[in-house]
Inverse folding.
């Protein structure tokens, strides 16, 4: 499990920047990253796009279910474009306790976008909403770190 401090250290050492697009995690991922060391140097910020309308209008999510791989990838791409970050990560899913749009509680997509790679992962997390949220944040931190490791160091 990757910590925000590990992301901070790697991003600073390599001159890279990070941004986030969040739905399910409601700003908690951005809060975790902004509390990491020297975040002003490497954390560009994020967008909390809780509603489908914001996902579509601000982040460019197409007319697809918002708890989907396509939506998660579009959210990551959208926030990377908005912020100019080297790496962007996104979370979308169903915290629970009930299903949403045909997806069961715990269904979570995390995606990462970089100039050289983009991918998403799906998880079916167990537990009450607060545990699903914590697991989604861990997933996003892992993806952000993996995305950072795929980037060439900044040349400035």
């Amino acid at each position: 499990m990757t910590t925000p401090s590990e992301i901070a250290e790697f991003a600073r050492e390599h001159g890279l920047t990070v941004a986030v697009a969040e739905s399910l995690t409601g700003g908690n991922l951005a809060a975790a990253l902004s509390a990491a060391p020297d975040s002003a140097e490497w954390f560009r910020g994020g967008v909390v796009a809780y509603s489908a309308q914001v996902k579509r209008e601000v982040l460019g999510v197409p007319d697809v279910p918002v708890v989907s791989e396509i939506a998660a990838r579009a959210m990551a791409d959208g926030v990377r474009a908005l912020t100019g970050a080297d790496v962007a990560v996104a979370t979308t899913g169903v915290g629970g306790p009930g299903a949403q749009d045909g997806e069961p509680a715990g269904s979570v997509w995390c995606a990462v976008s970089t100039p050289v790679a983009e991918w998403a992962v799906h998880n079916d997390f167990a537990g009450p909403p607060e545990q699903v949220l914590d697991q989604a944040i861990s997933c996003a931190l892992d993806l952000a770190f993996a995305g950072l490791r795929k980037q060439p160091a900044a040349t400035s």
